[in-house]
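re: that chain from earlier
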Amino acid sequence: MGNYVEKAAHDWTDDSVRIIATPSWTAKSTYYYVQEIGHFRTRPGYFTERQHLHSFLIVFTLSGKGYLRYRDRAYELRPGQLFFIDCQEYQHYTTDKRELWEMVWVHFHGSGSRGYYEQFARSGTPVLTLDEGSPIPGIIRQLLEINRRKDVRTEPLSSKYLVDLLTELLMATHPPENAGAFLPAHIQQIMGDLDRRFREKISLDQLASQHSISKYHLLREMKKYTGYTPNEYVILQRITYAKELLMYSDMTIAAIAAQTGMDNVSHFINLFKQRVEMTPLAFRKKWRRLP
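^ sequence. v structure.
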């Protein structure tokens, strides 16, 4: 991690709002937490150039025009658009000199922030154009109001609204193809097939052939809509079924491995440990100790 670097011209109007938070130990160890939040109406000289800040930043454009340089690419920011960036990386953002930029923004960190950011970054661009009815601008405004009047509820409520904000961002990067369902019909069919047959040995070639789709397209579509490849999805189903057998049966570990479709017990134990962070036997003992 490099040294923090920042150059900026804090050129905003007198009625702009900037709130700096000092998160408590509880917030830092448990919650998502606000570091800074604000509503800026910029003047012509406004810009920020920064790197190596332990923070994530979401900026939503209300009016005017802004410009962002991030990961060696340049972006124009119009009303209804936002950007979401990792401030450890180099960034430069500035207002247009004629169409002065107005935005609401929040710096935050904590809990699973990086995981949300990495999921968002899979879209390939830090900039997102929101639908007209998106709740995201309203959530940022609610965060701003909560942090204006600080009391014992501010940090837990801020965490709640940050989770709402991040969830809405992820949903907005994966819009449904139609109003009826998030998953396309062919992906629903493939997942249903895998749900029924996860204990069988199914090759990618077989699966693609049965559903009349190329295996490369199948891999891309499954990953895009579910977050898993077909193989990862099958492993997830097997591990979930194994948990049920460990919790509610007296079957041996070898028998459970075979029942879930894995003949190699050592491989089963390794897969289980990777995903559950304990061995099957430790999981069974822990579960049976619970009141």
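The two ends are 44 Å apart (CA to CA).
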